[in-house]
Amino acid sequence: MKRILIAEDEVAIREFEAINLKRVGYTVVEAGSGEEALDIYDNDAEGFDIALLDISMPGMDGFTLCKELRKRSETLGIIMLTARTQEMDKISGLMLGADDYITKPFSPTELLARVDSLYRRVEMYVPQTAPAVSDDITLGEFTLNLRKRTLLKNGVNIELTQVEFQMVEYFFSNPDVALGRTDILNKVWGSNYFGEEKIVDVNVRRLRMKVEDDPSNPQRLLTVWGMGYKWSTR
User: Fold this and answer.
1) Burial class (CB in 10 A: 0-12, 13-18, 19+), 101
2) pLDDT tens digits for 21-78?
């Protein structure tokens, strides 16, 4: 069962989201505040695949809720909903662990496209039960296990979201190859993604904070100016 938690204080918007998602087969649980959403998440026995979080809620806002949910799960898909157009709101949400954002107002088509795309990525993140041809990809001090979907650095596990894992998998499958932003976007978010390429840049920044000793002076995840990024083994 595809289960979604909606945290939105405006009843009309929450009902709009819930109705459209239920129509295509999602099970929706609604919360009118960040506090209520967190309580539901902590006490729900079945779990959730995706959370839609409004940023501008009274009390616990969407940023705080996103941070708390990400502490509890690296695999939960999180989409931030905002009426604001400022770049920092979008970047802040992504840096806190969100996977995507939608700017209000949005159409049912965009909502469903974003949710479906994220759900497919979340579903892919479930560890494989069948043995893979080769479970491990080792590059220097890093080992990526494709079956367990883990990344180790010098034997120490690095917690990755499903988006971060897919990015690392793409880089590890193409070591020392410059990958364009559009290529990364299509590979990780899908060719039908509604958003902008800058989501790649923000997620690279977040990933560097996890894998680099000095994120301001990266040695592995490098920028290829005018093109995109590459994972360096040198």
Assistant:
1) buried
2) 999 999 999 999 999 999 999 999 899 999 999 999 999 999 999 999 999 998 899 9
Q: Which of 40, 27, 31, 37 is nearest to 10 (CA)?
A: 31
Phi, psi of 168 (to 5 degrees): -60, -45
**Using CA of residue 26, residue 28, residue 34, residue 38, what is the dihedral sign?**
negative
| DSSP string computed for 110-125 | HHHHHHHHHHHHHHHT
pTM value is 0.81
Q: What does each C-alpha distance from 205 to 24, 179, 229 come to in angstroms?
A: 34, 16, 11
pLDDT tens-place string over residues 121-174: 888 766 544 444 568 999 999 999 988 889 999 999 999 988 899 999 999 999
Domain end position, chosen among 70, 95, 124? 124
Question: Containing domain of residue 106, as a range?
Answer: 3-124
131 within some domain = no
**Centroid of chain to Cα 140:** 26
